[in-house]
Design a protein that fits this description.
The protein has a domain of about 120 residues: GMP Synthetase, Chain A, domain 3 (2-Layer Sandwich), CATH 3.30.300. About 30% of the residues lie in helices and about 25% in strands. It has 18 helices and 30 strands. A hairpin with a 4-residue loop joins strand 1 and strand 2. Helix 4 crosses helix 5. The structure holds adenosine-5'-monophosphate-propyl ester.
């Protein structure tokens, strides 16, 4: 098991070692894992070509580290506790032994249907134990999983399946979310009309919603597991073989498939899990994210299981049956660590304190926050009402591309400061740069956040398009990984992430590209052009504001607004629906045709007078119209 930093002096020592001798530092951490063959070289890297390799030549399988090696020592300990959407439904506990068996069995089902090392498998499932089992079963046989969040549309699934040429899809009949029942299999069926690479669909049952099962293509999970053995030796993987693809939004074009590889990701997810949360044996870790996002991959599945932890999977939502649900789950399962998003905290805070006052939260030791900047008010509410002033809050900054937490307090070790992600973890070398890429030295400064040295969890490529990886992350500033985030470093050297500086929005902790939403809106009949920006939103952090130019024949605006929302939902999913749509006759463009988003952002923020220089605009009058019609 990974040893933990337990004092600030130890942190400083570890940090210094990780900078002066990164290879030695990570080699020592990696010794705590089970390798089939040791690596020959700890690190090879070149940011100019976006090439990073960790533990070169090492052979392993992440599931042997997440499952097999715990069997002798904690086989009967809970690996997964599952809590249903319905508080009346009995929860499920899977011990390490049971989970191991189920993963092996399902891995054999995958093999039976032709899956092999290197194949891409799409997973579109609710938050049920089978989702974690499916993920681990892929890893067991060396197939690359591509989990698609259950809220995405058929079109989004199809785009992701086609991009990675997946040959198998694992899904469920449906999912329960609050008082809603959501069809999943039929959404997959709609997607597959466009996907010729898919040979098999494996369907687990959750809602018992009637579904069509296509002969020769679709099989039931429950039937299949009965036909196979539960003995499945893990495939030997190279440290740099792909483990998974996870699609995420950027400034331009369609979401890209961020690729993580087996060895470095395992070491980094586990190291950060063990240290940031200071997980102690027997504790219950409750990360409220969906496994469809990176937070779920790293801190529900891989990090906790590789450290032999008990991880809680919650199927439901924080407000069902009422806004006290998280607190009930914490009391029921005696949760030690809660890891959630500011948007959830703000939403629960808005219900007032009556849902939390009479709950027993005494089991809590550590609170975590992730996904977006946490405002001070939410930080204090979390601290006082949930942590009762005695649980450290770890505000963890990281990204899909970083694989694990990068800048964060270490619970109980780093002195926290409201709304600050505080200090870089060992192995992480952040720098702030100005627009030209010059390093901004000293404290009490702000700039664009970059990382100047590789860490084991760094993105390896964007699936099928390495050039895009170079362009997106390693070209803006020479020899630096560019995060896309703005950041300040205060007088104490503490980091505070201020938000994206590119055209990516962060809506309820979900990353959505403005271009993606614009493309979806522009698909609607009668829409000529659109521009989308984020604006401050009390609960979601950012809301989506769309400026739309329609065909003059489109007269019933209320109806078109609804049609546009339906179009975005169909093409991306409900999470990308604009909160506000303003119809305009033109957009503020420069003479070279570039939309001046700065102006649109200001108007969306409610600014009417101080919108800056408009002299370079092709038609400055457009701005007056936009301000006049602002929502
Ligand atoms: O803008 C930052 C914000 O979320 C972005 C990454 O989004 P995603 O890849 O979906 O991963 C989310 C979960 C790791 C970042 O570029 N972000 C994430 N954590 C924080 C944050 N912003 C401020 N504070 C954080 N703790």
């Amino acid at each position: 098991m990974i040893s933990q930093i337990s004092s600030f002096e130890q942190y400083q020592e570890a940090y210094n070692q990780s900078v002066t001798d990164p290879e030695g530092f990570w080699a020592e951490v990696a010794q705590n894992f089970q390798w089939r063959k040791p690596w020959k070289k700890t690190l090879e890297w070149d940011f100019a070509t976006a090439n990073t390799k960790w533990f070169v030549g090492g052979k392993m399988n992440i599931t042997e580290n997440a499952l097999d090696r715990h069997l002798a020592t904690r086989g009967d300990q809970a690996a997964i506790i599952w809590e249903s959407n319905d508080p009346e439904e009995e929860s499920i506990t899977l011990t390490y032994k049971m989970l191991h068996q189920k993963v092996c069995q399902f891995a054999n089902v995958l093999k039976k249907h032709g899956a092999k090392k290197g194949d891409r498998i799409c997973i579109y499932m609710p938050m049920i134990p089978e989702l974690a089992i499916a993920v681990l079963a892929c890893a067991r046989i060396g197939a690359i999983h591509s989990v698609v969040f259950g809220g995405f549309s058929a079109q989004s699934i199809a785009d992701r399946i086609n991009d990675a040429q997946c040959n198998i899809v694992i899904t469920s009949d449906g999912s329960f979310r609050g008082n809603k029942e959501i069809a999943l299999k039929s959404t997959v069926d709609d997607a597959l009309v466009q996907c010729s690479s898919v040979q098999k669909v494996i369907v687990s049952t959750r809602t018992r919603t009637p579904v069509s099962m296509i002969k020769g293509r679709d099989v039931w999970w429950e039937n299949e597991v009965k036909t196979v053995s539960s003995d499945c030796p893990a495939e030997e993987m190279d440290a740099e073989d792909m483990l998974f693809i996870l699609y995420t939004s950027g400034s331009t074009g369609k979401p890209k498939g961020v690729v993580h590889t087996c060895g470095g990701y395992m070491v980094y997810a586990t190291y950060t899990f063990a240290n940031v949360f200071q997980y102690q044996p027997e504790q219950v870790h409750f990360c409220t994210a969906d496994i469809g996002w990176i937070t779920g991959h790293s801190y529900i599945v891989y990090g906790p299981l590789c450290q032999g932890a008990t991880t809680l999977i919650f199927e439901g939502i924080p407000t069902y049956p009422d806004a006290g649900r998280f607190w009930d789950v914490i009391d029921k399962h005696k949760v030690d660590i809660l890891y959630t998003a500011p948007t959830a905290i703000r939403s629960l805070m808005s219900f007032g304190n009556q849902f939390v006052e009479n709950k027993d939260l005494s089991s809590l030791k550590t609170l975590g926050s992730v996904g977006e900047p946490i405002n001070e008010e939410a930080w204090h509410w979390y601290d006082e009402n949930i942590g009762k002033g005695k649980c450290p809050i770890v505000d963890t900054w990281w990204q899909t591309e970083t694989g694990g937490i990068m800048i964060s307090p270490i619970a109980g070790v780093t002195k926290t400061k409201p709304a600050y992600a505080t200090l870089p973890l060992p192995g992480v070398q952040p720098i702030l740069v100005d627009e030209q890429g010059n390093e901004i030295l000293g404290n009490g400064v702000s700039g664009n956040l970059c990382i100047k040295f590789p860490w084991p969890g760094i993105i390896r490529t964007t699936y099928g398009d390495h050039e895009r990886c170079i362009q997106t992350y390693f070209s803006t500033y020479k020899n630096l990984y560019f995060t896309g985030d703005g950041c300040m470093r205060d007088e104490d050297g503490y980091y505070r992430i201020t938000g994206r500086v590119d055209d990516v929005m962060n809506v309820s902790g979900h990353r959505i590209g403005t271009a993606e939403v614009e493309n979806a809106i522009n698909m609607h009949l009668g829409v000529i052009e659109s521009a989308v920006v984020g604006y401050p939103h009390d609960i979601k952090g950012q809301g989506i504001y769309a400026y739309v130019i329609c065909d003059s024949q489109m007269e019933d605006q209320a109806l078109i607004r609804k049609d546009i929302l339906a179009t975005v939902t169909r093409l991306i999913g409900p999470i990308a629906k604009p909160d506000k749509i303003q119809f305009v006759s033109g957009l503020p463009k420069t003479r070279s045709g570039k939309i001046m988003r700065r102006i649109l952002r200001k108007v969306a923020e409610g600014e009417t007078s101080n919108i800056g220089d408009t002299s370079t605009l092709l038609d400055p009058l457009v701005v007056e119209e936009i301000i006049g019609g602002a929502l």
